[in-house]
Design brief:
Layout lengths: L1 H21 L1 H18 L1 H24 L8 E7 L3 H15 L4 E7 L2 H8 L5 E5 L3 H4 L5 E5 L3 E6 L1 H7 L1 H12 L1 H4 L6 H15 L26 H8 L7 E6 L17 H14 L3 E7 L11 E4 L3 H10 L2 E5 L2 H8 L4 E5 L4 H4 L5 E5 L24 H4 L3 H15 L4 H5 L8 E3 L1
Helix pairs in contact: 1-2, 1-3, 2-3, 4-5, 4-14, 7-8, 11-13, 12-17
Length: about 425
């Protein structure tokens, strides 16, 4: 690593000098881009970007000279998804599409390898590795993709791509050619995402279809195959819950960069009131709390599966009658497994993250503030200790939606579900 960084300085100077001499038009564009970055982010960011380019060129040449790339007739792809469980699931749909283009071997680099193995699986052509290995190993691959709200082409062996998959080469070239139009250029991730959300609203895109990258990919649906381990299914069946109607609930979120209660959590007191009322009006239903080991327990639940192996939780969700949660990774997982969810939305935008088959609830007042400030996930933009957008979706609104789902499943309960069709003020069902 030190060798590459030391060599980056003289190579940067030589490279940019050669560009200036060889291609006046490209040089002008380069200088313009550097000037814009300098103005927006400072000279340090310009130097970091120049170093990154130079280091990349050095690594590429080094690997080519050493012949360390795999030459087995298959493309070798380094695939690095970012975010939490839900983001991994969405990125898996993109990877599925890429893998249909040509034979390839994929290494998925995950900050959370447990999530990675649960979503991407393991096999002869798929390997899951730690995120910290991405920068070192990607240079030995034919194509390296870094996936967030955008698909970044980190490095690509054009010769190998052209030879082994002209179609994949075409798509990579399309992304690179239109990158400035597709990508939101700003140093702050939250503001970049905010602008992207509004772009998607205008274009009619969502968290899945935004990864089409201007037509490079199709991302035709919101469905991905989730691998299941049968041994955990047998383990869950031995619990004796398989024949019962149970509802899963979650009071927690994927951990971001620190601990703490996120703004988008639905109040715990609402969960507890919901369970109490269900005991009276929807008898025969059990409640199972799932989620992080550190999550606060919801009083009244029949079973607590906190901190359990995600492979077991997949079977729990698959067998659930319904899952109740705020927008988050377990909602994405449950939906992919065919379980309907009642989802309370607050800071996160419905048009980006909602599934049409779920019951998506949102207040008619303050909402959709994700990305308005750097600490949006943990602090309400209005300074409230408990966000108004989450308080406004009350327990009885969720209760009504749950009763409707029960009625659809059990005609004998239909009358109860029709007793109260009044929509509360400030409430929207998406």
């Amino acid at each position: 690593m030190f060798f590459f960084r030391v060599m980056a300085l003289p190579v940067t100077v030589l490279l940019q000098t050669w560009v200036l001499w060889k291609d006046k038009g490209k040089a002008a564009a380069l200088l313009t881009s550097a000037a814009e970055m300098w103005k927006a982010q400072g000279i340090r960011q310009v130097c970091a970007a120049a170093y990154s380019v130079a280091e990349g060129r050095i690594r590429t040449v080094f690997f080519r000279l050493r012949g360390s790339r795999q030459r087995d007739g298959s493309l070798h792809i380094a695939f690095c998804p970012t975010g939490g469980l839900g983001d991994y699931i969405i990125s898996a749909r993109l990877l599925e599409e890429i893998r249909t283009i040509c034979p390839m071997k994929v290494t998925v680099f995950c900050e959370k390898p447990t999530y990675g193995k649960a979503v991407y699986g393991m096999g002869e052509d798929v390997r899951v590795s730690g995120y910290e290995n991405f920068e070192r190993e990607r240079w030995g691959c034919d194509l390296a993709l870094y996936v967030e709200h955008f698909v970044h082409i980190k490095n690509a062996d054009r010769k190998r791509l052209k030879m082994l998959s002209p179609e994949l080469y075409r798509r990579v070239h399309l992304i690179r050619r239109h990158w400035k139009r597709l990508y939101v250029e700003t140093g702050e991730q939250c503001y970049r995402e905010r602008v992207q959300f509004e772009r998607c609203r205008t274009l009619g895109l969502n968290r899945w279809t935004e990864l089409r990258m201007g037509g490079a990919f199709q991302m035709a649906d919101q469905k991905v195959r989730i691998p299941m381990q049968e041994s955990y299914g047998a383990m869950w069946n031995r619990r004796g819950m398989g024949s019962k109607r149970y509802i899963t609930v979650n009071y927690g979120t994927d951990r971001m960069r620190r601990r703490g209660r996120q703004v988008k959590l639905w109040p715990k007191t609402y969960y507890e009131r919901l369970i109490r009322e269900c005991r009276k009006d929807i008898p025969g239903s059990a409640f199972i709390q799932i989620g992080d080991a550190q999550a606060e327990r919801i009083a009244g639940a029949d079973l607590y599966l906190l901190g359990e192996n995600l492979e077991l939780i997949k079977w729990v969700l698959r067998g659930a009658f319904c899952h109740i949660d705020c927008e988050g990774g377990l909602v994405h997982l449950a939906t992919q497994l065919g379980t309907k969810c009642i989802v309370v939305f607050g800071p996160t935008p419905v048009h980006m993250y909602a599934y049409p088959q779920n019951r998506n609830l949102q207040s008619g007042q303050c909402q959709n503030c994700m990305g308005l400030h750097k600490d949006w996930a943990y602090h309400c933009f209005r300074g409230e200790e408990e966000a108004a957008c989450m308080r406004a979706v009350t327990w009885d609104m969720v209760f009504r939606e749950l009763r409707r789902l029960v009625a659809a499943d059990d005609p004998e309960d239909k009358g109860k579900a029709q007793e109260d069709e009044t929509v509360s003020p400030g409430y929207m069902e998406i």
